[in-house]
Amino acid sequence: TGTFGRVHLVKQKTTERYFALKVMSISDVIRLKQEQHVHNEKAVLKDVTHPFLVKLFWTAHDARFLYMLLEFAPGGELFSFLRTRGRFSPATGMFYAAEITCALEFLHGRHVVYRDLKPENILLDRDGHVKLTDFGFAKKLAD
Question: Out of 28, 47, 62, 116, which one is annotated catalytic?
Answer without folding.
Answer: 116
